[in-house]
Amino acid sequence: MIGYISRRLFTAVFMLLAIAFVTIALFFGASRDPARAMCGKPCPADTLAKVSAYMQTDKGVLWQYVEFVKGLFVGRTYGSGAQQVHCAAPCFGYSFPNQSDVTTLIVERLPVTLSLTFGAAVLCLVVGIGLGAVSAIRKGGVIDKFSTGFAMFGLAVPTFLVGLLVVQVFGFMLNVLPYSGFVPLSESPLDWAWHLIGPWMVLSIILAAGYIRVTRTQLLGELSSDHLVAMTARGASPRRVNAHAVRGVMIPIVAMFALDVAALLGGSVIAEKVFSLHGLGDLLLAGVNESDLSLVVGVTLFSAFLIIIGNLLADMLMPLLDPRIRRA
Known about the structure:
- This protein has two domains: 2-101, no CATH class; 103-289, Orthogonal Bundle (MetI-like fold), CATH 1.10.3720.10.
- The chain is built from 13 helices and four strands.
- Helices cover 76% and strands 3% of the residues.
- It has helices at residues 2-30, 34-39, 45-55, 61-74, 102-137, 142-156, 159-173, 189-223, 226-233, 238-274, 280-289, 293-321, 323-327, and strands spanning 76-78, 85-87, 94-95, 100-101.
């Protein structure tokens, strides 16, 4: 078990370092120079060189990568003298348009994205696994037909279209849900949940479709397996048989959920835009529009960090669900 976790931790660290290099190479090697955007127009060559040196964008990709990794552990300093700017560790870069380090901007916006991700994850698991399990147990019934149609709808429609439909129907036409704004959990848990019901619905409708199909298919296979058929023949109650079958379904569900964390974080960009929420997705789009490459790189790598941590937790949970993984 310890060896399994150690291998996963090593893989996670290696993936983060690799993603950091690729992201920096893409944005700093091929994108527009952020110093030119800060300098404005007109911008003489000597002024542009000074701005670029101050922002540390005049160096090569390898230098940028080394400084970025060092900044995560010891911080980073931009400029010198009275205009010196220090970014404390862990430093994901400094956003000159916002005059703030990227870490602070991420911390300010993180509660919105985490609220979206957590709520949508819980909702899509409850709806997806619940409908998928009932569909398998009552195959061919009304619920089975409804859940199959619901899954097809969720897989076919894009996130932005579902978001616009939720805003139009529940926000404007029926006026039963708020269509913008965010209330921190610390201020009012009830208002926090109330303002996030719409975004949660959008993200969970898209993701629950996959869980319905996987749960239904896996559960039907488990219920027809030899050991559960034998258990039924020995007189075991349907509740006990279903409980054993559901346990076997949880292994692929956990693996699938770890991968869907990325989809939740990526889909939150669209949900935040539709519902006017200022989370990491909105911050990333602002960085792209302002050519703030430090902000873009920082948010991208932090999102990758959250995704890898989620997959790492799933890898650590898998041996607890399946003893065969511990023995492998």
